[in-house]
Amino acid sequence: MRNAIFAAVLSVACSATSAFAQQCSLAEFDKGGPPHSVRDVTPPTNDSKFEWGSDVDPWNGQARGWHYIKNLHDKKLSLDWKKPVLLIPFDKPLEPQGIFCKYDYGSLDSYKLDSNAPIRVSNDGMKSAQAYVQVADKKDVTKPSVTGAELRRTYQTATGEVSAAFARILLRYFPADKLLQVDFSSGPGETRIGFGAEMLGISQDDFLSKLKTSELNFQGPVPLGELFKRDDVGSMGANPAQRMALVRADGERSLRFENIPAPSGVAPMILVAPDGAPLGLTTVKLDLLGAVR
């Protein structure tokens, strides 16, 4: 039975992988039916003008939240959208006309529209916004559950070219077996996912050992506080001291861990450029996995 479940999971993962190679496109935004999306353009100032949007769509029997920023100013843009947990770093701002997308995954009933979800813009204060946010609720402990996050964006390389990058991590928990599956995907090339196992109930040694015996290439671990400002990390509820493995995953790659209690808390996730520069930060809500809260 377990093998059949995994076969189905991997089939879904592989069928979706080809879509991940694309840069963030807004062409399909708000095409998935209710609930209705929210979006707006911020009032222009001397320092910023951007479009924001948030939506929830059905996804493989579950749901996927979609939150985006499009820079409409001629200046670069860095910001922190706290409610859907999206950070564009000051050191790697979004170029004019650039797009940054954050996706998160879970059950449809875990998403609630928050009409007070302001965006903090570097050097330009707070901007009003709304967002669909995930709220942990009581779970059916007998059923498999999923959570995860994905970051996609355009960015300017050291040579001045505009490139695209993405990274995604999905966590699938099978409570009957106390089994956790971690799916990684990133691209193109040396683009990496930064992720730490601390909050998963897995020791750092076990996590790194599993990585070493897999087909995944990784670097680190590196303390999160060395990649982002400590204040930014703290505002997202993450621990700056948490050590992050920087994983490169061509296509969809999976690790499985047995005898794991349902994780809780939040786990930071980073999008890392091929040259090692952090391009974005978010967190994965582990409380959405199968346990009664």
List descriptors.
mainly beta; 8-stranded antiparallel β-sheet; signal; 3 helices; 293 residues
Notes on the protein architecture:
This protein has 293 residues and is mainly beta. Helices cover 12% and strands 42% of the residues. The radius of gyration is 18 Å and the shape is globular. It is built from three helices and 19 strands. It has one domain. The protein starts with a helix and ends in an 8-residue tail after the last strand. The strands form four sheets. The chain has an eight-stranded antiparallel beta sheet with strand order 1-2-3-6-11-12-13-17, with helices on one face. The chain has a five-stranded antiparallel beta sheet with strand order 15-16-14-18-19, with helices on one face. The protein has a four-stranded antiparallel beta sheet with strand order 5-4-8-9, with no helix packed on it. It has helices at residues 2-20, 204-212, 230-235, and strands spanning 38-41, 50-59, 62-71, 79-81, 86-88, 99-106, 111-114, 119-121, 125-127, 131-134, 145-156, 162-174, 179-187, 192-195, 217-223, 243-248, 253-257, 266-272, 278-285. Strand 11 and strand 12 form a beta hairpin. Residues 1-21 have low confidence and may be disordered. Keywords: Signal. Residues 1-21 form the signal peptide.
Brief overview, please?
Residues 1-21 form the signal peptide. Keywords: Signal. With 293 residues, this protein is mostly beta strands.
Instruction: Count every helix, treating DSSP H or I runs of 4 or more residues as helices.
Output: 3
Overall geometry comes to: globular
Our count of domains comes out at 1
Strand content: 35-45%
